[in-house]
Amino acid sequence: MSDKVALITGAAAGIGAACSKRLARDGIAIGVLDLDQERCAATVEAIKAASGRAVALGADISNRTQVKAALDKLRATFGPITILVNNAGIVDFSPFEQITDDSWDRIFAVNVRGTFIVTQEIVSDMKAKKWGRIVNISSSSAQTGAATLVHYSASKGAVIALTRSLAQELGPYGITVNNIPPGSVMNTVMSEANRHRFAIQADPSLSRNPVGRLGEPEDIANACAWLCDEATSYVSGQTIGVNGGRVVS
């Protein structure tokens, strides 16, 4: 995989950082992208300290101009991009009747339009190489629904539908498209910011997952690495649940 270049969004911390480090272990050059480029420094330094290759990138993924500039920097550093992990996303907890138009639009701007923009700006690289891997990080809340997360769950449901449609359209070009809907994962920006909302965050033994624990970013990263591998060329359009058995299919 040493000839591959990956972009991971929302990669300054949490799941995105774990995916960046895990893919770098396979020899893949990594574009570490987040809203604030400076916040990517720790992820980049960790990759380089392990003899990997990485560059820090900054962009609001809902802004196409910023995305284009970040991708130009990545291509100039490492070459065409053939792996994409759409991990960046935002969340807002609000009772349904209190969701504002602005909140709804902002959730969809980042979680859906941002995923659309980044993918659209990269897919030509993959088509030219006749090889590509796209992994979208959705959410188990899109599978089960979640109170006070109607807009977030709906946006992640759109990501799952996007995955299925892109898999059919891009398959003939050697590009696979899959999504991972994580269950409850600790040590992420979202989980830490909302730790007070969940008793199980303070006491993992309260987890209702069959495996008896909450997830870690590395759990998602390991599944992501598998989906990005050469060996998974026949896996596309799939929802790979990494949730400790919370959602079964």
Structure, described:
With 249 residues, the chain is α/β, with parallel strands linked by helices. The chain has one domain (5-188, 217-232): 3-Layer(aba) Sandwich (Rossmann fold). The chain has nine helices and six strands. It has helices at 14-25, 41-49, 64-78, 101-129, 141-144, 150-170, 189-193, 199-202, 217-228; strands spanning 5-9, 29-34, 54-58, 83-86, 132-137, 175-180. The chain has a six-stranded parallel beta sheet with strand order 3-2-1-4-5-6, sandwiched between helices. Helix 2 (41-49) links the parallel strand 2 (29-34) and strand 3 (54-58). Helix 3 runs parallel beside helix 4 (101-129) and helix 4 (101-129) runs parallel beside helix 6 (150-170). The protein starts with a strand and ends in a 21-residue tail after the last helix. The mean pLDDT is 92.
